[in-house]
Specification:
heterodimer; A: 573 residues; mainly alpha; Cytochrome C Oxidase, Chain A; B: 232 residues; alpha+beta; Immunoglobulin-like; 2 domains; five-stranded mixed beta sheet; 3 helices; 36% helix
Chain lengths: 573, 232
């Protein structure tokens, strides 16, 4: 990452914080205590990538156990029930809170917002730095939770009390408290980051950048930040209450002391469902940028896209109890939440239709970022569609807590977090590092990942339909699920997973090859319109040689009567 | 082989409402599957058709004119229509299974704990909480074609009383008594799972439900009553 260096020559228009960076900086002050939004983006990015490797190792271990129960797993050994519970719990927690969130929101948000709206940095650079530091602390606390006596928390990422509240039930006293502290700290980090994103996008836009000139990805990250900030409060409060139940002996969620375990579920899912959209929206934004550039098309219905996002955001606050249909809530409540949940399919479906319509009449180049963006649409469609089975209360009675749910949300989260990440990373890589990635390696990586992913999760739909319930370390105890047919499906899923994991070797080889010998990237290698492509690649401290002015909407591609098929936002004519 | 349209091809259809739930799932598969396949065909079709060609520029379409918006509003209305159908059928099934309980022929008690299922059956007198109650662990005996109400509780953490062949699932919440129902249509022996993670023994928390015809069930009751008399 040494490519990202403050270039002294190019700035001269700076606010106070840049002054301190004019002298020689130590490694620590440049990379660990930097105030530059691009460095903070890198910190989030590489911490996220480190965490995804841990999360991926966990899934490798427990999928091996599922395919070959009781066998020695390479790199781990024999998987006990306690191991298994802890692995599935922390796999989920890490992938959502320590991979999807830091990479999609924090990293892309930090890197893109100032560059795309044409300013030199976040409005609160110190809050930004604090956000990463708190996040790093949460990483350390989480990793510590695996190493304490009793082992890591194993009560599922949803942490339902009383299992999570009492150590005599969970058997992980310290592990569950540290897990909870880590999650709470992580939320604090993103609250700090969210304040910055919203304020910066609203106040620091380049002259001439009206609301309708803001690129969709910036809108998406800002709306996601608002959703996050509005929904996370109850869960932070809930986490502190649960911590008190664990360590002080209060009884917020303990029926013996007058508490109610279902209260936690409301607090958790009131956050947990909007959270799905918090990570979905940035990925949708990334995809919008890529499909317009690589089909040389204007986004179909910019304002309609925005309206669907806002509708989704508002509706997402009224669907949470679909996670609790069979959790002992008043059965009449399920009817209301079925209506809201099924209806949320409308704005989401519409968003996807608008994206597909954008491709119509285009001039499509299947570059690696475009492959990822199109795969996002193709795969997310299945994830979104299968959600209807779970939102419809009557069908959820059967599918709840089965592998159908697991397959469904991996068809949403994998496209969001993994495919969306690779789309954005390969698209902005030339901007981040000033070099091109290798196309051939990128294609190999793409195809093996996509085939492996589908091979892993299609069988899980079948297993779920056969009634296989979740979080079981060995199905041989359940006669209906111990059949050879179902066991073969488990093996196929594990083969798919291993394929997906092996594919990532090509990604890392590509990184090494490209960092060393990658073709040098120009400022605007994709002939794109948005302002980040005006800055040099990589952008120096302060971003722009000359602060840009915005003259038009972001997706003016193939405008009739012009000789170029793109029209950068900063060009006056 | 499995038929994706029919849950009954994966697993037996034993309770009276199992086929209603299967029908709902079939209906959703069709209503969601058709737009899904059309969207995928359009997506892949556009990718193939509009590949970059030398000398051909992309079209400039804003998507904000009325004639263009139709391409979104019509699918939008179709999705809305399908959604309403799904909602109506989903709620109907839900109300039958979870909300309006038919009158009970028998009442049983299902008490869950880490990591076992304790069942209390009424004895010959048909009354629960009387002297001839039959207590079992991890085996539930019921009579075919009778409406059973179950009173579900938990001693410690949240469990979930799940009988896939019945399409029945209900959380057991400590501190609450939750009442549900089922009526089995055929005899046989099926899995009861705990479908909510409940600690390190979660993977072992299985039980069996044995559905018997009236004479077999009565014989079982007498046998257990005899054992009970010896204990007393």
């Amino acid at each position: 990452m040494s490519e990202v260096q403050p270039s002294e020559a190019e700035h001269g228009h700076h606010d106070d914080h840049s002054q301190s960076e004019h002298h020689e900086q130590s490694f620590a002050s440049k990379y660990l205590f930097s105030l530059d939004h691009k460095i903070i983006a890198q910190q989030y990015l590489w911490t996220g990538i480190l965490m995804v490797l841990i999360g991926a190792f966990m899934v490798f271990v427990f999928r091996m156990q599922l395919a070959f129960p009781g066998q020695h797993v390479p790199g781990w050994g024999i998987v006990t029930q306690a191991n298994y519970n802890s692995l599935v719990t922390n796999h989920g927690t890490i992938m959502i809170f320590w991979f999807a969130m830091p990479v999609l929101i924090a990293s892309f948000g930090n890197f893109l917002i100032p560059l795309m709206i044409g300013c030199d940095d976040m409005v609160f650079p110190r809050i930004n730095r604090l956000s990463y530091q708190v996040f790093l602390l949460s990483v350390i606390v989480l990793i510590a939770s695996f190493l304490v006596p009793g082992g890591g928390f194993g009560g599922a990422w949803t942490a339902y009390p009383p299992l999570s509240a009492k150590s005599e039930y969970s058997m992980t006293n310290l592990g569950s408290s540290l897990w909870l502290i880590a999650v709470a700290l992580e939320f604090v980090a993103f609250l700090l980051g969210g304040i910055n994103f919203i304020t910066t996008a609203m106040n620091s836009r380049a002259p001439g950048m009206k609301f309708t000139n803001i690129p969709i990805v910036v809108w998406m990250i800002v709306i996601a930040s608002i959703l996050f900030m509005a929904s996370v409060g109850p869960l932070v409060a809930g986490a502190i209450m649960l911590l008190f139940d664990q360590q002080v002996g209060t009884g917020f969620f303990d029926p013996d002391k007058g508490g109610d375990p279902v209260l936690w579920q409301h607090l958790f899912w009131f956050f947990g469902h909007p959270e799905v959209y918090v990570v979905l929206l940035p990925a949708m934004g990334i995809v919008a940028e890529i499909i317009t550039v690589f089909s040389r098309k204007k986004l179909f219905g910019y304002k309609t896209v925005l309206l669907t996002v806002i509708a989704t955001g508002i509706l997402s606050f009224f669907v949470w109890a679909h996670h609790q249909f069979i959790a002992g809530i008043d059965p009449r409540m399920a009817n209301i939440f079925t209506v809201t949940t099924v209806l949320i399919s409308i704005p989401i479906a519409e968003m996807i239709f608008l994206y597909i319509a954008t491709l119509y009449g285009g001039s499509i180049t299947l570059s690696v970022p475009m492959l990822w963006a199109l795969a996002f649409l193709a795969e997310f469609l299945l994830g979104g569609s299968t959600g209807l089975f779970l939102g419809a209360s009557g069908a959820d009675i059967y599918f709840h807590d089965t592998y159908f749910v697991v397959a469904h949300f991996h068809y949403t989260f994998f496209p969001i977090a993994v495919i969306g990440f690779f789309a954005g990373f390969t698209y902005w890589f030339p901007k981040m590092y000033g070099k091109h990635l290798n196309e051939r390696l990128g294609q190999i990586h793409f195809w093996i990942t996509i085939i492996g992913f589908n091979l892993c999760f299609i069988p899980l739909f079948v297993l779920g339909s056969a009634g296989q319930h979740r979080r079981i370390y060995d199905y041989s105890n359940f006669p209906e699920l111990a059949t050879p047919g179902l066991q073969n499906l488990r093996v196929i899923a594990t083969v798919g997973l291993i394929m997906t994991l092996v594919a990532q070797v090509f990604f890392f080889i590509n990184l090494i090859v490209s960092f060393r010998n990658g073709r040098k990237a120009s400022a605007n290698p994709w002939n794109a319109n948005t302002l980040e492509w005006v800055a040099p690649s990589p952008p120096p401290h302060g971003n722009f040689a000359e602060m840009p002015t915005c003259y038009r909407a972001p997706y003016e591609y193939s405008v009739p009567g012009r000789d170029k098929d793109y029209w950068p936002q900063n060009e006056s004519s | 082989m499995f038929n994706i349209f029919d849950i009954g091809s994966y697993i037996d259809t034993v309770s009276t409402y199992a086929s209603d739930i299967d029908f709902l799932i079939l209906l959703i598969t069709i209503l969601v599957g058709v737009p899904f396949i059309i969207a995928e065909i359009l997506l892949i079709g556009f990718i193939l058709k509009f590949r970059k060609k030398e000398g051909v520029q992309a079209q400039y379409i804003t998507g904000e004119e009325k004639a263009q918006k139709r391409w979104i509003t019509i699918p939008h209305l179709i999705v809305l229509l399908f959604d309403i159908v799904i909602i109506v059928f989903a709620i109907q099934v839900w109300v039958d299974v979870k909300q309006d309980l038919p009158d009970a022929d028998h009442i049983i008690r299902v008490d869950s704990q880490q990591w076992a299922w304790n069942f209390t059956h009424s004895g010959k007198d048909g009354e629960l909480d009387s002297e001839d109650d039959i207590h079992t662990t991890n085996t539930l005996h019921v009579e075919v074609d009778k409406v059973y109400h179950f009173i579900l509780t938990s001693k410690d953490v949240i469990h979930n009383f799940s009988v896939p062949a019945f399409r029945l699932k209900q959380d057991a919440i400590p501190g609450r008594e939750i009442i549900g129902w089922f009526k089995a249509q055929k005899t046989g022996e099926y899995d009861i799972q705990c479908a909510e993670i409940c600690g390190i023994g979660h993977g072992l928390m299985n039980a069996r439900i044995i559905i018997e015809d009236a004479p077999t069930h009565a014989a079982w009751q007498s046998r257990r009553a005899g054992e009970l008399a010896i204990v007393h």
